[in-house]
């Protein structure tokens, strides 16, 4: 009994000694601080983001395009495209295409004959109006249908920009063509004139400028060589 009492007394003293040491070290305050820090560092529950619902196709069309404030007030970028001049559209027509496989080439004799006749006609025409002689080749009357004009004549007498040039045949029937000033030749409308007048390789034309943008056109046909030969 005495031993038990002595043991309890010793244990009590040891507990009190431990308490005093803890108070001196203030370990209980340090433990509380660690618990508070751990509680503060605990992450908060993650909020679920709502799934983004795609716009319906019709809604997407209706939504205006979002642009930054720096460019919002700028005009939309223009769509560039090539425009055909109004006067060029007016002279475009549809004609039957010639069969290129059946091209007829003039003989040297027929070609020389038509040029000689054109030179004779040149002497008879009014000299007050400038003119030039143009022998026809395949590129003028089939395929490409491009009629290049004499450079010196164009620089001296024709407009400096693209314009409509009217061709008047010997029956006073008028046809409009497109004159390309930079290329110095007739483009749109010339094909129709060539087909309508049945021009072929070896024919020779005399162009007389009777007005600023109007030619009187005389045609000497290669077929006349063969007629006269008979």
UniProtKB/TrEMBL annotation:
UniProt domain TF-B3: residue ranges: 132-223
InterPro entries: B3_DNA-bd (IPR003340), DNA-bd_pseudobarrel_sf (IPR015300), REM16-like (IPR044837)
One Pfam family in the UniProt entry: B3
GO cellular-component term (any): nucleus
GO molecular function: DNA binding
Keywords assigned by UniProt, alphabetized: DNA-binding, Nucleus, Transcription, Transcription regulation
TM helices/strands, residue ranges: none
Localization in the cell: Nucleus
SUPFAM superfamilies: DNA-binding pseudobarrel domain
Protein name: TF-B3 domain-containing protein
